[in-house]
Amino acid sequence: MEGLHFHVSTFPHFHIKFVPSQKLRIMPKPNSFRWSTESEPHKSRTKEIIHQHPEIRNLIGRNPYTFLIILFCVSFQFTLAWFLRDASWWVIFLAAYLGGAFACHTLYVCIHECAHNLLFKKRAFNSISAIIANLPLVFPSAVSFQKYHLKHHSYQGVEFLDADMPYRWEAKLINNSAFGKALWLLFYPLFQMIRPVRMKEISLIDKWTLINMIVQFTFMGFLIYFFGWKATVFLTASFFFSVGLHPLGARWIQEHFLTHGDQETKSYYGPMNTVNLNVGYHNEHHDFPSVPWNKLPRIRRIAGNYYDSLGFHTSYTILLFKFLLDRNLSVYSRMARDNRGKRKSVVSIDNGQLTIDN
């Protein structure tokens, strides 16, 4: 019987000692990432799928109409900010949580598309589009994201090359308490902003980074002057909610946290893909980063035998609460590696053709 210890003495009596069940369920704190000796898992699967389904090559390309989504979301945010410039604080934060967060997250996904040159052929046009999408996000981050995100694809889990990997001190500080994990999500943008500092192979400051900073700070100056502080707080709250303590913030848990054994990357197949531009199709995206957002579901339809057998999520809200309340999950719940890959594999497109060089 659980919670009972029976002690039999030389006398014909049983002495029963009650032990509080909580003492039997103490969850040890994790103290390290899970380590893999293999290189990142996506390049080999890409080769296999292309061999089995060469028609996927036809999905490679760009979607310039994404720029119209950028313009819509930017206009939506500034319109809301204008109307909220004299609103009560509770209205501002409620609007940020229920409305602004979704627009900001969509803009973040658009910046992600720009990082992969999936809007226009010329990289400069993609950078300009990303800087425009950055405007309601308060902090200048679009160009920096473009640079370090591509390293994340090539060196997933390699700490000094993958800015998506938490710092070790970050994981130790937060660990597996619900309160700590909630704070981590709430301030996730701040953690994300300092991670690129450790990436020695990337120049943090260049021409486009400076342009991004000048445009953003100038724009924010005008916004504060003409719209006021309440409108600025609305945009800032929208940004933090969009990538933090919000069901949308569960996307960071969905993508690479170890919620399904040792499977490093998980997709999300749920209704939020409609407003998040299919960003939930994360395995498909990592396997085929040259396919724009609107065609990612077709990859799964074509190569379903590869993806349907993988673990996936269908609810960001359920995943958010699971992460917060499940002490088996922590910031340490990531796969790390030192292996940069024995061979250099580069997935690229040229005139609509997929090339994998070794």
Q: How would you characterize this protein structure?
A:
This protein has 358 residues and is mainly alpha-helical. It has one domain (14-46, 63-343). Helices cover 48% and strands 8% of the residues. The chain has 15 helices and 8 strands. A two-stranded antiparallel sheet has the order 1-2. A two-stranded parallel ribbon has the order 3-6. A two-stranded parallel ribbon has the order 4-5.
Low-pLDDT parts are 1-26, 343-353
Element-level helix/strand string: EEEHHHHHHHHHHHEHHHEHEEE
The pLDDT mean sits at 88
Structural class by sheet pairing and helices = mainly alpha
Note the topology.
Blueprint lengths: L3 E5 L5 E5 L15 E3 L5 H11 L13 H18 L5 H27 L7 H12 L7 H13 L13 H7 L3 H9 L1 H7 L12 H21 L1 H14 L8 H6 L10 E2 L13 H6 L8 H7 L1 H4 L4 E2 L2 H10 L9 E3 L8 E5 L2 E5 L1
Parallel strand pairs: 3-6, 4-5
Antiparallel strand pairs: 1-2, 7-8
Helix pairs in contact: 2-3, 2-10, 3-4, 3-5, 3-10, 9-10
In short:
This protein has 358 residues and is mostly helical.
Summarize this structure as a short list of keywords or feature phrases.
358 residues, mainly alpha, two-stranded antiparallel sheet
